[in-house]
Amino acid sequence: MAIPQTEDGSISLIIESPEDLNKVKIGLGRGTPVTDGTDCSLDVSAFLLSVSGKIRSNNDCVFYGNNSLKQTEGTIRTLDDSIVHTSSNPGEEDDVEIHVTLNSVAEDIQRIVFAVTIRGAENAGCNFGQFRSAYIRIVNVDNNKELARFDISEDFGASTVISGMFELYRQDGKWQWQPPGKGANKKLDDLLKDYGWEKSIDRCSLCGLHIEKNRLCEFCGNISAIEPLTKNDRNQYNLAQGKVASAKQFNDFVIEGDVLKKYIGQSEIVIIPEMIRVIGEHCFKDLPIKKVKIPASVEYIGNEPEGKVNNNNGAFERCEQLESIFFDENSKLQSIERYAFYGCKDLKRIVGLPIGIKTIKSRSFAKCDLDETSKKSIETNTAKLSDDWDQI
Predict the structure, then answer these.
(1) Domain with CATH 3.80.10.10 in the chain
(2) pTM check: above 0.90
(3) Does the pLDDT value for residue 83 go beyond 80?
(4) Quick one: DSSP state of residue 153?
(5) Contact between residue 42 and residue 117 where contact means Cβ atoms under 8 Å apart
(6) Beta-strand relationship, 83-87 and 75-77
(7) Tens digit of each residue's pLDDT (9 = 90 or more) over 28-42
(8) Average pLDDT over every residue of 101-109
(9) Who has greater pLDDT, 227 or 126?
(10) Portions of the chain given CATH number 2.60.60.30
């Protein structure tokens, strides 16, 4: 269905639906990318907006990577279960679905805006015109009636994001819908900012990890922001201080320029210094560490800058007790090299993996035990992901 546009590119078609809506589905068909081997894919997100046109809190943004919401086995849902986002449904027509139960949506939500974005567009140079047969549709689940379907490739070819792909809105006490707004060259981060997303504003006073206000720091266990402190709280805080003091020992690292060559410390938790750009090959290989915090400055894990690519760059290879990896906010990470975390059999969680990683290479997470959320973040945040990134 081609969509008529005005001279400034805005959509002139407005469709009103007189029927009552309760359960609806937004279905996305990702189509086939035709991008010279560059890896990028489509996804759809939802934003619940109040009368101000902004979200009430970060919980009103439904997309993979919003750790404020409930996520299990490829599904993300709002805290009240009014919106459920699923992907890769076997046997289903649509690759990605967002199900909305409108009668369960909070009364102070006036609009629900859906947006289609291209994961990895910035690094891969993709636009919607490079996806063959991609589409989006809206279905009234109560009667299985398809209300509309649009060809993304044809109608929005030069764009990288469609804001307001469909919009559900309240009018006279009933929910209605209208079809797309215009395409634009943006990314998901731009939409989040437009709709009022608030990034975490606090840093842990001990280890420096970005955390939500008055929340326990998952990395070091610091609870100093929680008041009042009980005696047990103070004991835990003192324990966290000791851990962080040990983890921050600068003389535990062998550093050449901005390359971390070797970790020679004894701490189970490790805070890599802020100045590091490259975590060198075999830097932590076989060491009994449990947690590692990677600063925003790190661009490469397991490779020497301007160096020859080896068969095995395993920076954290066979760290069998490693449980979790924490990336600091605004990470500049570009590449995770071959065998980087190979054989980290206890590794379950990756927290804060940045969007827009260029490459994750062969067997970098093979023989790991990553949870579904961490796997999904790798798949969605990486422009070029090796087919055997998690395989032996």
Answers:
(1) 249-385
(2) no
(3) no
(4) H
(5) yes
(6) antiparallel
(7) 887 776 655 555 677
(8) 88
(9) 126
(10) 23-194
Burial class (CB in 10 A: 0-12, 13-18, 19+), 189: middle
Name the CATH code of domain 23-194 (choices 3.50.50.60, 3.40.50.10190, 2.60.60.30, 3.40.50.720): 2.60.60.30
Q: What DSSP assignment string belongs to 26-38?
A: EEEE--EE-STT-
Say if residue 311's pLDDT is above 60. no
Specify whether the CB–CB gap between 181 and 162 falls below 8 A. yes
Spatial separation of the C-alpha atoms in residues 61 and 67, rounded to whole Å = 10
The per-residue pLDDT for range 340-389, each reduced to its tens digit, is: 999 999 999 998 898 889 999 999 999 999 998 889 889 888 989 999 99
Within 253-351, strands assigned E span 253-256, 259-263, 269-271, 278-279, 291-294, 300-301, 324-327, 335-336, 349-351
Q: Write down the architecture of domain 249-385 according to CATH.
A: Alpha-Beta Horseshoe (3.80)
Q: What is the pLDDT of residues 223-274, one digit of tens each?
A: 655 544 556 666 767 777 777 777 778 889 999 989 999 999 988 999 999 8
Sequential DSSP letters for 65-119: T-TTSEEETTEEE-TTSSEEEEE--TT-S-SEEEEEEGGGS-TT--EEEEEEEEE
Q: What is the pLDDT of residue 159?
A: 58
Whole-number pLDDT of residue 355: 83
Residue type, 155: D
Task: For residue 273, give the amino acid letter.
Answer: P
pLDDT over threshold 90, residue 182: no
Q: Which tokens is 282 given?
A: 């075999």
Which among 58, 60, 25, 64 is positioned nearest to 43, based on CA atoms? 64
Location of structure tokens 């069998």 = 320
Residue given tokens 């619940």 in the structure block: 48
Q: What mean pLDDT is reported for the chain?
A: 77
Q: How many residues are there in the chain?
A: 392
Question: Phi/psi class of residue 318: alpha, beta or left (left: φ > 0; alpha: ψ in -120 to 50)?
Answer: left
Burial class (CB in 10 A: 0-12, 13-18, 19+), 35: middle
Whether omega before 228 lies within 30 degrees of 0, making that bond cis, reads yes
Query: Which amino acid would we find at residue 81?
Result: D
Burial class (CB in 10 A: 0-12, 13-18, 19+), 103: exposed
Tokens of 11: 């959509």
